[in-house]
Amino acid sequence: MSEDTIYRDSWGGKYEGSDGAVAKARVDFEHKFGDGYLPALLSLASTLYSAAGNNFAKFSSLPKWQLITKFKLGFRAWRYLREAKKLARDFKKMIGGFAKMTADQLDIYQSIMLRAGDVDEAFEACTIGLERSNLSPDTRVLLLMGQARAMIALGENFVEYVNDTHQKALDIIHKTKPTTQ
Question: What is the pLDDT of residues 138-179, one digit of tens each?
């Protein structure tokens, strides 16, 4: 199973069914159970997180009168997110904690934890990730924005910090934006 196929299906919103991204990620995980176990574990968690978001977006877009469909989508989103959170926590434990995770892994982890409501854990992952040297601009922006979202979710009055974080992210985007001729 190709990671590119899972990636394309995820971006295309094709998560469900026996040929959807979730099923393919599960097969990929089982196939890599040996040497590639840990990366495949977080990859599966990430796919489940994306599928949860996709189902929640569909849920939110439906009118109230489509109650049964909304219930199915909401339950599926909750189930995917619950499994993603468990797998992400298993990954963290098995790899040896935040210190052993790459910045990209920390970003995936914080995204899952933030959506699952574990804001303190998400904030810690972002903070540790941002302390790393040689972050790609993309990863730095994602971690900065995750940290800002976590601070807002914590309910703290960090308006100045959040605005500063947002400005840092915009500066990074503008510095790395390709120029057109």
Answer: 899 899 889 888 988 887 666 666 677 777 777 777 777 665
Alpha-carbon distance of 181 to 175, in angstroms, equals 16
- Check if the beta carbon of residue 143 is closer than 8 Å to that of residue 106: yes
- How far apart, in whole angstroms, are the C-alpha atoms of residue 173 and residue 167? 10
Task: Tell me if 110 sits within 8 A of 150, measured CB to CB.
Answer: yes
Burial tier of 1 (Cβ tally within 10 Å: 0-12, 13-18, 19+): middle
User: Given its phi and psi angles, is residue 136 left (phi above 0), alpha (psi -120 to 50 degrees) or beta?
Assistant: beta
- Asked if 5 contacts 24 with a C-beta cutoff of 8 angstroms, the reply is yes
Nearest by Cα to 44 from 78, 93, 10: 10
Threshold 0.85, pTM exceeds: no
